[in-house]
Every structure is written in C-alpha cells, then in structure tokens.
Amino acid sequence: MRMAGTGPEPVQDNPGTRRSLWLAYALLLVAGLGAILVNLAQVLDSKQLYLREADKANANLAYSIAQHAQESIKEADIVLSALVPLLERGETSADTIDQLLLTFKQRSPQLAGVFVYDAEGRWLHYTNPPPAADANNSDRAYFQHHRYSVSRDTEVNSPLRSRSTGEWILPVSRRFNDKEGRFAGVVLASIRVDHFREFYKHFDIGAQGSILITMNDGTIIYRRPEDVGGTGESMAGSYMFQYDLKRSPVGVGGSISTLDGVDRVYAYRALDQFPLVTAVSMSRQEVLAEWGRKAAMVGSLVAVLVLALIGVGGGLVARMRKRMAVAQSIAQENRELFHLANRDSLTGIANRRQFDQALQVEFHRAATVGSPLALVMIDVDYFKAYNDRYGHQAGDACLKAVSDVLRRFKVRAGDTVARYGGEEFTVLLPHTDLAGARLVAERIRQAVYERGLTHSDNPVGVVTVSVGAHSLVPNPDDRPEQLLEWADTALYRAKSGGRNRVCLLEPTS
Ligand SMILES: Nc1nc2c(ncn2[C@@H]2O[C@H](COP(=O)(O)OP(=O)(O)OP(=O)(O)O)[C@@H](O)[C@H]2O)c(=O)[nH]1
User: Name one Pfam family in it (predicted).
Assistant: First the structure.
C-alpha cells in the first residue's frame, strides 16, 4: 500500500542541475586553459619570429663584410697583376718600380705595404724599409708556397706580423718568373688587419654580438670584440667550422661560443674567390630580450584575465551552488511541512486530512473512468477498555501496532491507508469491487487478530478489529461522503454483529 502523497522531490537528486554545475565548471576550465594555450602558442611563435629576424640581419651583414673582404683582396691583387709583367719583362728601372710601389700604397690606404722579394727571399723593392740590411723573407709561408708551386694564382695566407711595421697584416702574394720560366721571386701586397677593425666598428651587433673574419682553416684574421679570439688564434674547433661549413658554404646556426661561452645565433659565409670565411653573430639573450619583456607582459595580462575569469565565473558558480542549497533547504522544509500537514503524528501513516483529499481525487477519477472504488473502515474493538486497563500510553502503542499491520499490508500501488481518527482507520482501494473489498477487509481483520496483542477485556483475549467495507462505481452526481457513510454503516453492523468481523453493504440498487 502506498502512503498517500510522497511530497516534493529533493533538489539535490536533480541530475539536470548537477549537470549544469559540472558544465559551468568545465566551461570555466576550458576557457581558462584555452586562453593560456593560445597565449603560449603566440608567445612561442613570436620567439621564432625574433630568431628569424636575427638570422636575417646576421646573414645580410655576413654578406656585406664578405663583399668588403673580397673587394679589399681584389684591390691588392690589382697591384700584384700590374707588377708581375713588369718584373718578368725586366725592362723597367728599379727606381720606376720603387715609385710605382709607393703610388700603389698611397692610393690604397688598406695596404700596409707592397714588396718584391727575389728568388732567395731578399728584399728587392719595398714601400717600408726592411728591419735589417740582410732581411730575408724566404721563411714566410707564402714565399715557400710560391717557390714550390708553379701556380701563378694569387695566394692569400694566414695573417702575420709585419717585419717592417710590426702590425698584423694579411699577406696577398703572387709568384713571378724569369725569362726561362723559373721562379724569380714573390710580390706581396699586405693588407692591414686594422682595415677590417675600422670597417667593423661601424656595425651595431649588441653588447655581446661578434663579427669575424677568418681563414678557411679557422685562423682568425680579425674578431670583434677583441677580448678573446685575437688575430692569429684558431677557432677550428668551433661548431661552425666542425659542422656548419662542412655542410654548406653559407648558412645560419646557433651554438655556445668555444671562445667566450656566450650562446649566440650566427650567420656565416665562405668567400667565393678566396679562402676566407666571414661570420656575424648576436647573443641569443640580447636577441630575445625584447621578446622576453613582451612575453612577460602579455603573460601577466593573460594571468590577470584568467584569474578574473576564474573569479567572476567561480563567483557565479558559487552563487548557483548557493541557490541550489537554498532551493534544497526550501524543498526539505516543504517536505517537512507536507509531512506535518498530511501525516498522523502517532502512527506516521496518512492523517484524516490527506485521506479526505485522496477520497475526493479517487472518487472523481472512478466516476470519470467508470471503475469501482472501495473503502474499508477499521475500528479497534473494546479500545476504551484497553485504555482503561493498560493505560493511555499502552493504548497509543496498540494503535501503532495496528497501523503497522495495515502499513505492511501491501495490496496494490495506489491504495491509501490512513488513520481516520481515534482508534479508527481507513483503507481506500481504487479499481476494487465488492468482492475485492471483502477480501482485503477479511485479511486485515485476520492479520490484526494474528498479531496477538493481549487484551483481557476482549472476549477472544487479544486485540481485534471490526471492519466495514463498501464498493461502488460512482456516478458523476454522487458525493464521496456517500461511500464513507455506507462503509461506516457496514462497520456499525460489524460492531453490533459481535465485533472481530467483516461486514459489507450490498448495493441497494
Ligand atoms: N490511547 C489512545 N486512546 C484513544 C486515542 N484516540 C481515541 N482513544 C480512545 O478510544 C476509545 C474509544 O472508545 P469507544 O468509542 O467507546 O469504543 P470502544 O471502547 O472501542 O468500543 P467499541 O468500538 O464499541 O468496540 C476512547 O476511550 C478514546 O479516548 C488515542 O490516540 N490514544
């Protein structure tokens, strides 16, 4: 049997509301994470942009200093090309050649000097006086090369200290022959290493950047800055010489310098016509300094936005939760009120008020669909005597026991069991005809009897009930009270018929 009316549904069990809350949390999480990820992607992208820009700037500068070096060597070579035929023909006077050498030197300020050595290395002609009367340059590498190589090509050798001025020079030289084609000596135009220093100082490469020109074996001609890697030192062990140049004569790269330990991005270029390499680099830290500042700024802005999002969103969700909690407690109060208003406080089953409502509803439903509605009325026998003998509290316990019997008496969903008043109970049975009502009534009477509650003033020795029942198919004009009256009359007959029995009123019409 159903206890009539179960009251409002609890809010917390509403899966839709719980889903909305989870959705709100998920949206907050996705929005926050999304903002962070998009920002991260942009920040990383802009880092690559800064590095690419640095590569471009380095490559352009490496190209331009390579051009400069090439032009400087070519200019020296023009001097050599002019001198070699004159020396080989042997028709020009020594004075004229001396004069020519001076003119060449004056016209090309990058030249430290111009020199002619004979087949033994002795100084024949020179723009700068020899360090000693018997000066001899046959020990120089360029001299050795020309003496043993028949090639008449221009030779650029590793930088060395000038014997005439003591400064660092880059030797550019050629061999000349005698009329029989034998080695007759060497012409040398030496380029001042300072020439490169003066040119390179104009470029802005940051505080830790570097500009470099080397021989292709890694011997440094000039490096800016000059704190490490001086002229003549080798950087053959650097990443650029070990790997980059072996792969390609032109390129960009990044590595930690073997000279000063600074992490740099660089561009390099091997010269087309001479065995030289130029390279320009910038410190990675300096290249990325501005990016770092911007990234930190954008990052903090995003952090503030995400925090605001979490703050506002979290606040909204918290308000949602609060509202749900309020709704929940209201629902709880409603349930309690419903309970108070509709439940009998002693037995916990439906009270008279709820029974009356159920009767109205079921009566009209039965009238509408034309189905039978039965009412069973139960009254405890000799209950006054029970109270008198065992006391009022025992009487209450007896009523609870009877209601327990009725409560456990499952008949059908939709039935209503109620305390009608005092020691009187009712059971309303929709869709139940007279035969069904009789069956239920008899079972109830039997169950109470079998419960076996001692009652000395009852002739059978235990608590019993008298039951009156009636069933009808209501007409739309009938009143619910009629069913009550008939059931009550039947109950009266059961009482007057000797109690502990069931009585039904047969339909009068
Ligand atoms: N303990 C207790 N007694 C109640 C309660 N409600 C009604 N009563 C008592 O139930 C008794 C009903 O007595 P009567 O109407 O004379 O009927 P009866 O003694 O049962 O006799 P019959 O019904 O004719 O068998 C009265 O003494 C009421 O005081 C209740 O909630 N608790």
Answer: dCache_1
Of all protein residues, the one whose alpha carbon is nearest to atom 29 of ligand 1 is 384
- Domain layout of the chain by residue ranges: 1-189+288-341, 196-287, 352-504
**DSSP helix/strand/coil, 376:** strand
For residue 160, the tally of other CB atoms under 10 A from its CB is: 17
SS (HEC) of 463-478? CCEEEEEEEECCCCCC
Q: What is the pLDDT of residues 449-471, one digit of tens each?
A: 999 999 999 999 999 999 999 99
Residue 203 DSSP class = S
pLDDT above 80 for 252: yes
Q: What is the pLDDT of residue 410?
A: 57
Which DSSP category does 243 fall into? I
Question: In what helix (H) or strand (E) does residue 172 lie, and over which residues does it extend?
Answer: strand 168-177
Ligand 1, atom 32: closest residue by C-alpha = 396
Q: Is 306 helix (H, G, I), strand (E, B) or coil?
A: helix
Least Cα distance to 175 among 165, 184, 162 occurs for 184
Any ligand 1 atom below 6 A from CB of 218 = no
For 352-504, give the CATH class.
alpha beta
Question: Is 226 close to ligand 1, i.e. is its CB under 6 Å away?
Answer: no
CB–CB of 215/158 below 8 Å?
yes
- The number of helix segments (H) and strand segments (E) in the chain equals 13, 16
Catalytic residue among 71, 333, 336, 423: 423
Q: 46 in ligand 1 pocket by Cβ < 6 Å?
A: no
Ligand 1 pocket test target in 381, 423, 424 with most atoms within 8 Å of CB: 423
What's the CATH class of domain 1-189+288-341? alpha beta
Secondary-structure class of domain 196-287 per CATH: alpha beta
Ligand 1 mean position, distance from CA 471 (Å):
26
Q: Is the CB of 379 under 6 A from ligand 1?
A: yes
| Model confidence pLDDT, tens digit, residues 22-74 | 887 888 888 888 888 998 999 899 999 999 999 999 999 999 999 999 999 99
Identical fold between 1-189+288-341 and 352-504: no
Using CA atoms, how far residue 315 sits from 27, 154, 327, 478, in Å, is 14, 81, 18, 59
Q: Report the nearest atom of ligand 1 relative to the CA of 499.
A: 25
User: pTM for the complete prediction?
Assistant: 0.60
Please indicate whether residue 88 is annotated as part of the active site.
Answer: no
User: Ligand 1: does its nearest atom lie under 6 Å from the Cβ of 109?
Assistant: no
